[in-house]
Structure prediction request, 288 residues.
Amino acid sequence: MDRDLRRPFPAGRRAGVLLVLLAAGIASFVALDLSPASLVPSRGGLDVFLSFVARAARPALTYEGSFVPGDAEPLLWKALHAARRTLIFAAAAMSLSLILGILLGIPASAAWWGGGSPSRPRRLLRHAGYGAARVSLTLMRSVHELLWAVLFLAAFGFNTFAAVIAIAIPYGGTLAKIFSEMLDEADPGAAAALRASGATPLQAFLFGLLPRALPDMAAYAFYRFECAVRSSAILGFFGYPTLGYFIKASFENLHYGEVWTYLYALFLVIVILEAWSGALRRRFVGYE
Prediction:
């Protein structure tokens, strides 16, 4: 049949995709036997939930336990120290992630390999390098940081550097993917002008294309740093001395006021980082 005579989907292609996704969601609910009734808590569970929520307006300023060692630091000071350690974990992980993101993101971009009509060996080299970079970053970001943490705990024991690596690997893969896409979507006009004036492909990339993508790359890196802070806090549930460790311990002891104290410390860190990264985004790329 002539392509022009084909009858289009009545609601358009985008609506068709949404309908397919909706059908897949309904099929998934049926396959998993999901029921809203399963979300109704038991009486005891509801009491715990209400008790926890009620303490949100009254976070603890001192320890709620009946026994507190004499040399224990004040609760608020302890929460600040835990927040500082959480930031240190995140900063260490992001420093490694940025290195991985740049080292893999550049060769994973089509722009790095340039255009033209190279010889067959050079075309094979392009395909091999590009493919290896894309496969590497896909493998890195396919495994969640919590699973990496479990694997490294089993392999190396309670190791701080292993915890940092557990965050750095998937974050490095994610940064590499986004960096490569930003490089490919950057305006190639300046790079083409440099090539036309006799610059080498490397010079055209470094001075014509990379500066166009760098502001967006920096803005996204700051966003991932906020995510790394939350991930480092979650690592505390595995025993690392971040905010998650103290949240878990307080919750297990039913000290809900202390839990909210640590949660508010995490919230304060995220708010400060969001304000800082927002100011930098406005400076770098001109938008929130």
Notes: The mean pLDDT is 84. DSSP finds eleven helices and no strands in the chain. The first helix runs from residue 13 to 32. The chain has two domains: 8-39, 60-284.
